[in-house]
Every structure is written in structure tokens, then in C-alpha cells.
Amino acid sequence: MTGATTTAAVRIVEVGPRDGLQNEKQPVPAATKIELIERLAACGLPVVEATSFVSPKWVPQMADAAEVLAGLRRRAGVAYPVLVPNLQGLERARAAGAEVIAVFIAASDAFNRRNINATTDEALQRLTPVVAEAIRAGLKVRAYVSTVLGCPYQGAVAPAEVVRLVRALADLGCYEISLGDTIGVGTPGRARALFRACADAVGTARLALHFHDTYGQALANVYACLEEGARVVDASVAGLGGCPYAQGASGNLATEDLVYMLHGLGIDTGVDLDRLVETGRWISAVLGRAPASRLGRIERRVTCV
Amino acid sequence: MTGATTTAAVRIVEVGPRDGLQNEKQPVPAATKIELIERLAACGLPVVEATSFVSPKWVPQMADAAEVLAGLRRRAGVAYPVLVPNLQGLERARAAGAEVIAVFIAASDAFNRRNINATTDEALQRLTPVVAEAIRAGLKVRAYVSTVLGCPYQGAVAPAEVVRLVRALADLGCYEISLGDTIGVGTPGRARALFRACADAVGTARLALHFHDTYGQALANVYACLEEGARVVDASVAGLGGCPYAQGASGNLATEDLVYMLHGLGIDTGVDLDRLVETGRWISAVLGRAPASRLGRIERRVTCV
């Protein structure tokens, strides 16, 4: 073991406004969502997932997707991906001015069946024309693979199945594939082994980490994968959100805690941590709760380096 | 990077009954403390820190130290260290049947001054006859060095100062020296570098990790240090406790979350995780709060391996 972590920059993909807010039961006004996205971009986050063009019947909280995306003052150099489940969603996203979309699939048959009533292969078939059409139209496509380290319905998920999907999504032209530990069951050894297997298939630069902190393992898993060359990490300001379809799945990794670790490792993120903590406290107050991040709960940070 | 974590066993030092309970404002009955210690030992934990023979004026919660220690049905093969601040405490501990004591010192002058009104060198001088007398009497002595990665009063702490203390404590005959990140500010790179420096001085086998989760970094720090050969880790069931003298210092690493990570890494601990989670829920309920561990909050764990 050398213990060396390179100082190459890590790109953080902020998913709070979409992945975080989508499960809020009380409607959040579009103006608040827009303010959140703009504040996050102003913190220096290079990618802020803005909203989701899923059917409002599935996720009522995201019914204002077009309004949010259109109302946004976009910053140069910041990407604002939007989630898209199908061709209809893609059309709505394009009409609203989306430049980057994100598609999703689970690595578990049981999860795909419960979530979208399809086998994994059927899910891949459905997603294929969406990606193709988006790319044809000049959009960039990100892909989420969920349940990569375990499924709430079937338990174990074979790493080979994850690798197969990652390769297929890369072949379709997705510029980035995010590995989602949807229920947060992964531990560092399995996380890094899976990352390495996927990196062997498509390269490290094409992969993102999307770890949940349900079992408290998210940061340790990120750290282990950094050692394997991971350079893109998804996180949610104030730890907002979780997965609505997965029992016990709560606790997105909080962006503040991730940034604190990365900066402590000497890894540049471009993010202003003080401003990010303030943003996390603000949105938490708006939602009427304490921040789920650790950093957001510390009254006075101590500088010890 | 090989990513290999050896499968050598890790010894967990459970500190909940002492480090955890000492800050409880409401008195906890001795019978409850005894039940907690006995339950923890029954989970398979090899070391359960039982109580503290500090002055009841300083820590009223530990005024029943002798009663707790004497009332305990000890399990064969389990050690029950007790904290001892001075010769008077040592005498009380011996009289109550202690076989292992723990002494403490901070690596920061500012912290020692505020905590015990002494410089670090004076603190070391005060501690020296306590360790000598304990060893002469046939007791084993563990030592805590606190603020090893940062001090709430002075900020940065020089790694060389930590190494100096670790070496001094080893020379005095302490069988184990626990490296305490009292305020939880450490990140994995600094944690592993400090561990390595200390291990170069006294060997890995003589060191324990004592990380707080205040900044959410504790498990990542443990993981990084495991890669450097760390094999003893302190943790507190249900995340009980923190440091009463350090502003913002809360959040002991929860034993449940640590055990989950270690078992996920294929590292044996001897601990029955289900029973431990149950114990953490029980003591949290007794104290009238939700467990601070992540595992304790999960309704139904999903087995994914």
C-alpha cells in the first residue's frame, strides 16, 4: 500500500435539486428549486442535476420540470442534466432547453420489474432509442445504473451484470455512467472491486460514483474508489433525498461531507465549502428540518491543517 | 494500489459505557450500566471499557465506578479497562478489582491546559507514576492520546508531537496507545499518514484508532488506516458520547457501523452484529433517543453478498 491519493481534481455531480427533492411530500415551489440550483452552481459545482421529466403521475414534485429548467439563469461552464425516462420525457426536456439528459436502469431484474415493470433487458431496450434520439439531437447523455451493490428485492446483484450494463450504456454513447448503490449496502472492498471491474470495461473517466449513506459507508466507499482512479462523484446537498421505491433507502451522500473529505485529501473540487454549507442549511430550513450533512450541523468548524 | 485489505482480525474496543455515558446529563443507574456492559460483552466484543475513576466532582455520572465494576459478571476472555486520571483514581480502581486501566493525555498544549491545567510535558510527568505504579501492581495500561488530528483550542497539532507522546507512552510500558481524533476533523490522508508515523515509532500492533464522526469522516479514516495495518479500533455502541471539553466534539464512531464495514471487508471481529444492533437500540431507548448509528435506524437490513 502506498497510500498515495493523487491530487487530480474530482468532479462532483450535485443531485440535490432532482434526486433530493423528488421525494419531498410537500410541494416545493419552482422558484425555490430555481434558487437552489442557482445557489449550488454559484458554490462552484460544475454539474447540477436540475429536475426530472418523468410523468407527474409518478413524481408530482417534478411536474414543474419545464418551468424550473426554463426559469434558470444558467452559468457558463455549468451543466444542468435532467432525468428522462422515455421518448416523451426527452421531447419535453428538449422543448424546455435541456442540453444534457440522464437515463436510468437498475442492475437488478427484481428492481426493474417493480420500478418500471420490465426486465433488465426490456429496460435496456426501452432506453436505447431515448439515448440514440438524444445524441442525434446533439444532447449529451448520462446514465444511472442503480442497485449495483445490492437490491432491496432480490438481495445480491452480480458484478458481471453491472459490467454488462455499463458496457452497453457506453456503447450507446453515454458520456458518463453513474454506479448507484441505491440502498447503501456496499462496503469499501466490494465498492472498489466493482468500480475496477467497470473501469476495466469502459475506463475510469467514464464512471461516476453514486453512493448512499444508509449504512454509513458512503464516504469510505468513495475513498476506496478514489484509490482505483474514480474522479466523478454524485452527492446531494444537505444529504437530501433517497429512493422512493426502495425500502430503507434513504440518505444520499451529503455534498458538504464529501467536499470536506476531498479537500482534506488535497483534491481540488472547485467548490466553496463555506458557501455550500450555507446553501445546505438554507434549503434544510426551507424544508423545515436540520441538514442531514455532518458539516451542516457543526456550529464552528475548526481549521486544523 | 492493490486494494487488498487483509483478512486479519480487527479487535474492537467498545467505549460506550464509559466514553459514551460519561456525558449523559441525567444519571444512569449503575444497574443499567452493568446491563449495558454485560450485553456488549455478550455480543462478542473482546474489550469493553467499563467506567472511569475520575473525581465525581469532574464527572458525576461516573461516581458509581466502583459499584459498576464490582457488580459486573465478567466473561472469560473479555477485558474491562477503566479510565484513571491519577494515583488516587488508580487506588480506587485497584480496590474495585480493575485489571486494566486507561490513562489519557492530549497532544495539544492548549487542550491539556484547559482540560487538566497542565502543559503536555507536565501532563506526561503526572501520568508517569500512575502507569509505573499500575504496572508494578500487575495491571495492564492502555493510553489515550487525544486531539491527534486537531485541537479545538489551538487548531493544528504537529504529527511529530503525537509521535513523541506515543513513543513516550510505549516506553512507559503501555500495551496499547489509542490515537484520538477528539473533534473528528481528520480526513483519510492525514489519518493514515499519522498512523504510519506512529507505527514507524512503536509498531502497528501497539496502536488503536479512536475516531469521531463529527465531520462524517470516521469510517473513511478507519478504512485508510486499515490499509496501513491498523488492527485495533475504538467505537461506541449507538454512537454514544463525545468529549465534554471540546466544542463541537460529538459523535463517537458507532460500533454497529464499524462492524458492518469490517464484516463487509471480510475482516473478522467476533461480534454478533444483530445482537449489537439490538443492544444499541435498547440503550438508546433507555436514554430516550434514537440510535446515532446508521445501522440502528435501518428497519430491515438487506443481505446483498
Automatic annotation (TrEMBL), chains A, B:
UniProt KW Iron keyword: no
Record-annotated Pyruvate carboxyltransferase domain positions: 10-277
Assigned EC number: 4.1.3.4
Keywords: Lyase, Metal-binding
Enzyme category, top tier: lyase
Reactions the enzyme catalyzes: (3S)-3-hydroxy-3-methylglutaryl-CoA = acetoacetate + acetyl-CoA
Pathway(s) served: Metabolic intermediate metabolism; (S)-3-hydroxy-3-methylglutaryl-CoA degradation; acetoacetate from (S)-3-hydroxy-3-methylglutaryl-CoA: step 1/1
Origin superkingdom: Bacteria
PROSITE patterns in the record: HMG_COA_LYASE (PS01062), PYR_CT (PS50991)
Gene3D superfamilies (UniProt xref): Aldolase class I
GO MF annotation, one: metal ion binding
Biological processes, Gene Ontology terms: ketone body biosynthetic process; L-leucine catabolic process
Record NCBIfam families: PRK05692.1 (NF004283)
Protein family (similarity comment): Belongs to the HMG-CoA lyase family.
Protein name stated in the entry: hydroxymethylglutaryl-CoA lyase
Organism of this sequence: Fontimonas thermophila
